[in-house]
Amino acid sequence: MGGEAAGGRVELRHLRAFEAVARLASFTHAATELSITQPALSRTIRQLEDALGVTLLDRSSRHVETTAAGRAFLDHAERVLAEFERGLAAVRRQSSIRLGFSWLLPDPWAQDTVARFERATGTTVMLVRTDDALGAVLQGKVDVAVVRGRVRSTEVRVVHLFEESRVAVCAVHSPLAQRAELDWSEVPRWPLVVNTTSGTTGPWSWAAGAGPETIVPTANFDEWIESVAADRGIGVIPDVAIRRNIHPGVRFIALRGAPDSPVALASLRRPRNAVLRRFIEAALASAADLRSV
């Protein structure tokens, strides 16, 4: 809604500006609340008064006051703005944002982010489990996805959130099951089960020639965990798994000296989407809360 209120055209921005000045009795405070400059706010009010052909605000006194015409118009402006906000809320309650993930969501970050975003916007977050979260973003199946590890695609926008520690996983009857700790340098001595679609640890995690000699490839998390439980090899996974009962046939082993695994949000590089932007803001705020603990 651009342009001036000339010729009787009154826009929503004019109503918001007038309501803020009338309520706060101050151009300075209203400009701050509306995040515009005071000269811009004054021009907007003058446009509204010119369109209506009346003076709405008395600027002669020390404090800004509404005139008789202003008080009469304020009642109508408030009702229009309230109805408009109710309409926005009704639409937002029916809208949603699709968050993709390939396996366990980081906690408590995920729960905090969803609650923060839904409270602030009234928009629902739909959780979409997918074997290939990055692929789901590129195919438009989700709006944004939690991705772990290094993202090399140039087709997506990546927003880094935080780092996760790694832990080793083995079968309950593996010789390693009795170990309390495993060093990162020891991992290549064992067959390594790798989720080639969305895993965070694989041959790429070591310099050329320094990684495990034997790789057991799997295509998704379910295949990965079942292969580890069957003692086909060991796995390395973010330590969020320790706090979940992911499989009775595996044991976790503390991993010393392992590099952290990055966690990020990936979305398509496209024109700015206000709802998506607010979700990313909520995600970053929750990540900051975690770092401050």
TrEMBL record:
<dbReference type="InterPro" id="IPR000847">
    <property type="entry name" value="LysR_HTH_N"/>
</dbReference>
<keyword id="KW-0805">Transcription regulation</keyword>
<feature type="domain" description="HTH lysR-type">
    <location>
        <begin position="10"/>
        <end position="67"/>
    </location>
</feature>
<dbReference type="GO" id="GO:0003700">
    <property type="term" value="F:DNA-binding transcription factor activity"/>
</dbReference>
<dbReference type="GO" id="GO:0003677">
    <property type="term" value="F:DNA binding"/>
</dbReference>
<protein>
    <recommendedName>
        <fullName>Probable hydrogen peroxide-inducible genes activator</fullName>
    </recommendedName>
</protein>
<dbReference type="Pfam" id="PF00126">
    <property type="entry name" value="HTH_1"/>
</dbReference>
<dbReference type="InterPro" id="IPR005119">
    <property type="entry name" value="LysR_subst-bd"/>
</dbReference>
<keyword id="KW-0804">Transcription</keyword>
<keyword id="KW-0238">DNA-binding</keyword>
<dbReference type="InterPro" id="IPR036388">
    <property type="entry name" value="WH-like_DNA-bd_sf"/>
</dbReference>
<keyword id="KW-0010">Activator</keyword>
<comment type="function">
    <text>Required for the induction the katG gene for catalase. Involved in the response to hydrogen peroxide.</text>
</comment>
<comment type="similarity">
    <text>Belongs to the LysR transcriptional regulatory family.</text>
</comment>
<dbReference type="Pfam" id="PF03466">
    <property type="entry name" value="LysR_substrate"/>
</dbReference>
<dbReference type="GO" id="GO:0032993">
    <property type="term" value="C:protein-DNA complex"/>
</dbReference>
<dbReference type="InterPro" id="IPR036390">
    <property type="entry name" value="WH_DNA-bd_sf"/>
</dbReference>
